[in-house]
Amino acid sequence: MTPAPVRAFGPWSWLLVGFAAMYLPVYWEASTGLWQTDELGHGPIILGLVIWLFWRARREIATATTRPAAALGLSLFAGGLLIYVFGRLFSVASVTFASQIFVLAGGLALLGGYGALKAAWFPLLYILFMVPLPASLVEALTGPLKNWISVIVVDSLYAIGLPVSRAGVTISIGPYQLLVADACTGLNSMFSLAATGALFMFIAGRASRLHNAVMLASIIPIAFVANIVRVTALVLITYFFGDDAAQGFLHSTAGLMLFVVALALFVGLDKCISAFSNSRQRAGGR
């Protein structure tokens, strides 16, 4: 006789097997294409975080499981399959990746009802950060972003006496010229930084709605500042250590710096808001 825990886990196993059969080929293709680019290199990191978030919520999903929501589950699952087929037939990566949300949500609703869906809401929504942004949107917004960051970087370095100027998004410093590329200041990098901010907010789990609202509103400004720090670092590395240093190992280090700076700003802002809230509570209790 098969033990009860194995029988209970059986349907979830079939969901995982079916999901893997659908999306492992998608991940493999992305690993040899989209995820090899600077703009979408964060894809494997987001995938790993999504897996970790679901694993982290596994007990909550199991204990929150309620009566299966057949109508909702079938609608979500069927819609996800249609979106998946469309994305695969027409090679639209953003559509294919987005279909994961509906397929998984449908499976959760069919097996665990509204309780399982509620328990898995954040991992499901976090998949959005894995979806490649449409090229038209990236092109429309990247140009202004590059221009603004170029202006701020050049004006800041000129103010401290460095020989720097710019022509459009080309920065000249000393004998060197740097083109501010899409990968350095584009919308995709801000998108990945937004993923960092959202994950931090979820893990921090602050109860105050005002606290969470301020943190949410700060995501894009912090991402913008982190990009400024990255470009500034690359310009300074080029000026003091040469073009080879900036384009070699230190260029990758500057990319890591982007996330370190953003995370540091998130943590700092979170602590400042917490300290301010605590001081107000102490003052109100007197």
Tell me about the largest β-sheet: 3 strands, antiparallel
What portion of residues belong to β-strands? under 5%
Instruction: Count the E strands.
Output: 3
Number of helices: 12
What ranges have pLDDT less than 50 throughout 5 or more consecutive residues?
A: 1-8
Summed over residues and divided by their number, the pLDDT gives a mean of 86
SSE order = HHHHHHHEEEHHHHH
Based on CA inertia axes, which overall geometry fits? globular
Q: State the distance separating the first and last CA atoms.
A: 66 Å
Structural class of the secondary elements? mainly alpha
Oligomer: single chain
Radius of gyration: 23 Å
Helix content: over 70%
Q: Order of strands in the sheet with the most strands? A: 1-2-3
SSE topology sketch:
Blueprint lengths: L3 H28 L11 H14 L1 H7 L5 H20 L3 H27 L1 H6 L8 H25 L4 E4 L2 E4 L2 E4 L2 H4 L1 H18 L4 H33 L1 H5 L1 H37 L1
Antiparallel strand pairs: 1-2, 2-3
Helix pairs in contact: 1-5, 3-5, 4-5, 7-10, 9-10, 9-12, 10-12
Describe the protein's architecture and organization.
The protein has 286 residues and is mainly alpha-helical. It has a 3-stranded antiparallel β-sheet with strand order 1-2-3. Helix 1 runs antiparallel to helix 5 and helix 10 packs antiparallel against helix 12. The protein is globular and about 70 Å long.
Task: Give short descriptive properties of this protein.
single chain; 286 residues; mainly alpha; 12 helices; disordered N terminus
Provide a quick synopsis of the model:
78% of the residues lie in helices and 4% in strands.
